[in-house]
Amino acid sequence: MKFKTLKPMMLGLSILSLSIAVNSDLFTQVQAQSELTLTAAESTSNELTPIVNFKPDSNEELDASKGGASRPTDIKCSSDETYNPPMTSLLPASQQGLTVTTHPTFWVYIPQTSAPQAHFTLKDENNRGVYQTRFPINKTGRIVSISLPKDEFPLEVGKTYRWSVALICQPTQTDIPIVGGKVKRVELNSAPIAQNIGTSSEPLLAEAVSYGKAGYWYDMLNNLAQLRQTHPNNNVITTNWVHLLNSEGLEKIATKPLF
Q1: If residue 185 lies in a helix (H) or strand (E), which one and from where to where?
Q2: Which of the residues 74, 220, 235, 254 has an alpha carbon 20 to 30 A from that of 229?
């Protein structure tokens, strides 16, 4: 039997083709294995993720008198349909909370409205204006955030402030939709915060757990809200978010999108 000898060029092409086929198959296997590993890691992380619970700090009491804005409000712009759900500030039932940051973020649900803008106001204990701004309502039926400028208006430790968000209705009217509440800045108690770091693969979630246990509403809520924005399809984050809002009577807006 005679064997046909391959020419050098043909032999080179054959080896190259075999190499490409093997490498292609290897790449497919590695890619599939990576995807499987990622899925498994996420599953393991989800099982270990703690649930965020809010426990008010009994040692830090705010002024019991409420006044001002409420949560939620039944007032609407005259040209709008009835708000369902109504405009609502994301606060516990007491309409007040603690923060450890100098520049907290405030979250409000704004329903579908014809109002082109909203007005945010922050006042100190003596009802003096600290900061105010107007912002456009680009998307409706969403939960929006308002943050204080980082380079000014820091909240002072031990001081309580009142904040509000009002819709600027068109045409103008006497009674306007307005919600808000109180915020008090306190010193950070680092002990309970440190205890939960490392219990979750997501630091923001671990911090949210600690903030909730320490009674820091604004910091806990903001951490969860950031996670909701960056991981909108993560079941663990969604479960924690909905669980928290439901526990404070905010179930009507618990599944609303964030902006």
Answers
A1: strand 178-185
A2: 74
* Per CATH, domain 88-253 is 3.40.50.620: no
The string of pLDDT tens digits covering residues 206-217 is 899 999 999 999
Domain boundaries, the chain: 88-253
First to last CA, the chain: 77
- 174 Cβ contact list (under 8 Å, min separation 6): none
Long-range contacts formed by 213-217: CB under 8 A, 24+ apart: 213/53, 213/55, 214/55, 214/57, 214/189, 215/54, 215/55, 215/56, 215/57, 215/60, 215/98, 216/57, 216/97, 216/98, 216/99, 216/100, 216/186, 217/54, 217/56, 217/91, 217/92, 217/97, 217/98, 217/99
Q: What is the pLDDT of residues 41-76, one digit of tens each?
A: 343 344 434 489 999 987 766 665 544 456 788 899
Query: What's the pTM value of the predicted model, to 2 decimals?
Result: 0.77
Q: How far apart are CA 240 and CA 209, in angstroms?
A: 10
Instruction: Report the length, in residues, of the chain.
Output: 259
